[in-house]
Amino acid sequence: MRQLQDEKQVDLLNAVFETQESERKRLAEDLHDSVGQVLSAIKLNLHRLDKAAETENSTTLLADTRKLADECIQEIRNIIQNVLPPVLTDFGLIDALQALCTKLGQNTDIKITFTKNLADERFPSEIELTLYRIAQELFGNAVKHSKATSIQLLLTKEAGWLVMSFSDNGVGFNMDNVSHGFGLKNLQSRVQLIDGKIHIYSKPLNGTLTTIKVLLT
């Protein structure tokens, strides 16, 4: 039993590292593919302005460069929003989840509903960040794989526990086939970092329900 527990701890720890590396890789790719390319174009335009000949319309070139700079600034803001949303650090988990649901609802055809059965309040930063990351991952999985038309996110407090429930009406999956999947390990590792509990239930053609509970002290 001790060996099995040790092996489980190792697997969860590996999942944590893999998750961190995956997030770093995604950030690096975002910076390279979007911001890097725009900055390169700005640099080229500035070089052309420096060498501008009489036949070249420097006013138009300056306007194009300003436009590229604006695009670069917006891309940086988008990346910062994905990595660590200011609304999360400034206003807390409730507002951040509401903003996430609103954004995804606007960018997808899925009907997304966010419900909170608790007063507006702040929680420990590690809990807020972890639950937000879990919500992002659950939304990402649902949008990519579930074929859902409706998603409900619920945040509530029950007998000293902070509870986040995520449910969709998608195609679901067979729990026996994915119980040891990497995605599930990622979720388990995140929940373990805040000493929480996670329960996932799904059946083919019956959607998926994921519940995370964290004891508040």
Work out the radius of gyration: 22 Å
Judging by the overall fold, what is the CATH architecture of the largest domain? 2-Layer Sandwich
Shape: elongated
CATH fold group of the largest domain: Heat Shock Protein 90
- How is the largest sheet built, in terms of strand order? 1-2-3-5-4
**Content of β-strand:** 15-25%
Structural class: alpha+beta
Low-confidence stretches: none
Question: What do you see in this structure?
Answer:
- It contains seven helices and five strands, in the order ααααβαββααββ.
- The chain is an alpha+beta fold and about 220 residues long.
- It has two domains: about 1-85; about 85-215, Histidine kinase-like ATPase, C-terminal domain (Heat Shock Protein 90, 2-Layer Sandwich), CATH 3.30.565.10.
- The protein has a five-stranded mixed sheet with strand order 1-2-3-5-4, covered by helices on one side.
- Strand 1 (about 110-115), helix 5 and strand 2 form a beta-alpha-beta unit.
- Helix 4 (about 95-105) runs parallel beside helix 5 and helix 5 (about 125-145) packs antiparallel against helix 7.
